[in-house]
Amino acid sequence: MINADPHELQKFSELAHRWWDPNAEFKPLHELNPVRLDWIDALAHLPGKRALDIGCGGGILSESMAVRGAKVKGVDLSSSALGVADLHSLESGVEVEYEEIAAEALAAREPGSYDVVTCMEMLEHVPDPAGIVQACATLVKPGGWVFFSTLNRNAKAYLFAVIGAEYIARMLPRGTHDYARFIKPSELAQFVRSAQLDIVEIKGITYRPLSKRFGLSDDSSINYLMACRRVA
């Protein structure tokens, strides 16, 4: 069985045509992308690296890693999102290879093939996040980097990421997130260690409403990023 929720795939597929509109539903991703890109690049040094973006959607992170000098492949299970990603790649002239394939299937086909693997804002949308983490660990080369981002599961995260972002500030469409699928850092850490990855760094993501800017902090109580390396 494919590790995906059909409802989640349909939800994002229906919004696919708006992926690259910086003022539409994916505006937060456009605003957040430079922050997470700089963080990934500072640790993994993207130029010349072979990078894989799992759950790439319309290709926002995939293209930006390619601009930084990585050879990038993006995979997703939404054909609509991948169609938008392919079209935008042609329009921008930024070369990215896209494929509709599950992370687990790609891991079986191309183990140990990538210097950098990213899986951003995806784990909280799948039935078995531990399976995705294991696939990422299989895909990365020994000594390579794996990056995750997801949402913590606590009252504060529910208040800000669901009630605040979806219903009050309307930064995201209602129903974007299912709180029951949020993942505590301790839970993700367990998945990571079970997959034979070492945790290097955990960073929280902050949002400043007045300046409308994202940033990194040591507060992982809502959104957070985790950088890992495969044990050689």
UniProtKB/TrEMBL annotation:
Residues that bind S-adenosyl-L-methionine: 36, 55, 76, 120
Enzyme Commission number(s) from the entry: 2.1.1.222, 2.1.1.64
A biological process from GO: methylation
Family membership: Belongs to the methyltransferase superfamily. UbiG/COQ3 family.
Gene Ontology MF terms in the entry: 2-polyprenyl-6-hydroxyphenol methylase activity; 3-demethylubiquinol 3-O-methyltransferase activity; polyprenyldihydroxybenzoate methyltransferase activity
Gene3D superfamilies reported for this sequence: Vaccinia Virus protein VP39
PANTHER family: METHYLTRANSFERASE (PTHR43464), UBIQUINONE BIOSYNTHESIS O-METHYLTRANSFERASE, MITOCHONDRIAL (PTHR43464:SF19)
Reactions it catalyzes: a 3-demethylubiquinol + S-adenosyl-L-methionine = a ubiquinol + S-adenosyl-L-homocysteine + H(+); a 3-(all-trans-polyprenyl)benzene-1,2-diol + S-adenosyl-L-methionine = a 2-methoxy-6-(all-trans-polyprenyl)phenol + S-adenosyl-L-homocysteine + H(+)
Pathway in which the depicted protein is active: Cofactor biosynthesis; ubiquinone biosynthesis
Protein name stated in the entry: Ubiquinone biosynthesis O-methyltransferase
Natural source organism: Caballeronia sordidicola
Alphabetized UniProt keyword annotations: Methyltransferase, S-adenosyl-L-methionine, Transferase, Ubiquinone, Ubiquinone biosynthesis
Function: O-methyltransferase that catalyzes the 2 O-methylation steps in the ubiquinone biosynthetic pathway.
